[in-house]
Specification:
199 residues, mainly alpha, CWC26_splicing_factor, Bud13
């Protein structure tokens, strides 16, 4: 039978032995039941290794924090960094102005500087100042420079011209020269180390 006892007509001794065996088996199982009742659940991954849930939770939390930090950064960049700086400057200027007294006198340097920086329509001196600044900027004009990928080194550290297309048309002499210099330096350093090895 499923319970483990013999089926059919059995003697009293066999029946008693079977019942004792069942009780002993139940006592053994009862102890295991008590032990397993308060045991912690063990979670395993697909390969059968134990999972550390606290560590996984901590990693997920750190990942979520890093993602939220990155989202905040992208949101900040989306608004525009220059606009945010300008807004901060406007707030600081407004706070500075609020701290000043309401009455402004002729010797107020901030007011004087603000009025001088304003450009007024029909100001005859404004055109003269603009022309002078434009002339100074033209005089300071620099020659165009090459701004592309880093050019190969040469002996004289001369930068290529602004019209260079980035193609190295040399015969390789410069690279061979730098390789010989590096090799010579390495041999000298190795010889020095070998000579002071016994000291």
């Amino acid at each position: 039978m499923l319970s483990g006892v013999k089926a059919g007509l059995v003697s009293a001794d066999v029946l008693r032995r079977e019942q004792q065996e069942l009780r002993r088996h139940e006592r053994n199982n009862k102890r295991l039941e008590e032990e397993s009742r308060h045991a912690m659940t063990i979670f395993r991954d697909k390969s059968g290794r134990k999972r550390d849930l606290a560590q996984e939770w901590l990693e997920q939390r750190q990942k979520a924090e890093a993602e939220s930090e990155r989202d905040k950064q992208y949101a900040k960049w989306g608004k525009g960094l220059a606009q945010e700086r300008q807004q901060q400057q406007n707030v600081e200027d407004a706070i500075k102005e609020m701290q000043k007294p309401l009455a402004r006198y002729i010797d107020d340097q901030d007011l004087d500087r603000m009025l001088r920086e304003q450009e007024r329509e029909g100001d005859p001196m404004a055109d003269f100042i603009k022309k002078r600044k434009a002339k100074e900027n033209r005089e300071k004009k620099e020659k165009p420079r090459y701004n592309g990928p880093a050019p190969p080194l040469n002996r004289f550290n001369i930068w290529p011209g602004h019209r260079w297309d980035g193609v190295d048309r040399s015969n390789g002499f410069e690279q061979q020269r730098f390789a010989r210099m590096a090799n010579k330096k390495a041999v000298q350093e190795l010889a020095y180390k070998w000579s002071v090895e016994d000291m």
